[in-house]
Write a structure and sequence with these properties.
Rossmann fold, binds nicotinamide-adenine-dinucleotide
């Protein structure tokens, strides 16, 4: 089954992962992906299905959930919840676990960003970004970790960002949450070992609806000119890293953050 493009606004050729099922141990895995109705999350859902996993997506966007249910063949389920609301998360997690008879892998990926100057950030905007990107990640991670500790262990992968590793103007609140996700990941990896592996993925610029919403064509071209690989990542490229980190090929990998950014932050001049 060829991978279907989900992300909007891409100028690049579809990446063909049509070979399917190459990574060890993913075939029977039960995978829950938050933010799975769009962008990186939807591409990751498609990739795990291609690897033979059972996949349930969780998102607060009802229309988006309906869309992915028709666009991604073979989804085990699509559950609606706002990750910043703990009781919604607990109910949705229980539904996903019922639909798949358990959860072995969590891709904790839902997130939002607001482009604004530090001096202009309102208290409401600050609270909103923290609630989704940090409290939301905690809510889902703890719910999943309790389930995995009671059962056969598992893997928790969380979406950070290069913005959590280096400073970036106009996203101070977002950057703080992504740095928080990285440290949360490391602390979880220490406490939950050896039953659960925990890693973070830090993408650079990825061509998704989130990126299209905040960057004009001129801004996208400017970014592409500064990234050493001269383009944005495709969501499927981030999905491939998630699939590898969840697989048995990554059985000794835990407690770290993996950057995937076309060399953007490797040098001081990149992305400036
Ligand atoms: P996207 O907007 O395409 O997808 C995000 C999904 O998360 C959407 O379906 C949205 O409905 C969902 N979501 C948002 N808030 C939610 C909530 N409170 N509860 C449940 N679902 C919620 O964005 P994307 O680019 O695919 O981003 C996915 C993740 O990758 C985010 O954590 C983002 O910060 C991170 N990231 C993106 C980029 C990029 O350049 N696009 C770079 C680095 C990191």
């Amino acid at each position: 089954m060829p991978l279907k493009r989900i992300a909007a606004g891409s100028n690049y050729e579809i990446l063909n992962y049509g070979f399917g099922g190459l990574l060890r141990g993913l075939k029977s895995k039960r995978v829950l992906i938050t933010g799975g109705a769009s962008g990186i999350g939807a591409a990751t859902a498609a990739r795990f299905i291609e690897e033979g996993s059972q996949v349930c997506v969780l998102d607060r966007d009802r229309a988006g959930l309906h869309r992915v249910k028709t666009e991604i063949t073979g989804l085990a389920g699509a559950v609606e919840a706002d990750v910043s609301n703990l009781s919604q998360v607990q109910d949705a997690f229980a539904s996903a676990a019922r639909l798949m008879d358990g959860v072995d892998v969590l891709v904790n990926n839902a997130g939002i960003s607001i482009r604004h100057k530090f001096l202009d950030i309102t208290a409401q905007e600050w609270d909103k970004v923290i609630a989704v990107n940090l409290t939301g990640v905690f809510n889902v991670a703890q719910t999943a970790a309790r389930h995995m500790m009671e059962h056969n262990g598992g893997v928790i992968l969380q979406t950070a960002s290069t913005n959590g590793l280096v400073g970036q103007p106009f996203y101070a609140d977002y950057n703080a949450t992504k740095a928080g996700v990285i440290e949360l990941t490391k602390s979880m990896a220490l406490e939950l070992a050896p039953k659960i592996r925990v890693c973070a993925v830090a993408p650079g610029y990825v061509m998704t609806p989130m990126q299209r919403a905040e960057y004009t064509d001129e801004m996208l071209a400017e970014v592409n000119a500064k990234v050493p690989l001269r383009r944005h990542a495709q969501p499927e490229e981030i999905a491939a890293l998630f699939a590898f980190l969840a697989s048995d090929d990554a059985a000794y990998i835990s407690g770290h953050v993996y950057t995937i950014d076309g060399a953007e932050i490797a040098g001081g001049l990149a992305s400036r």
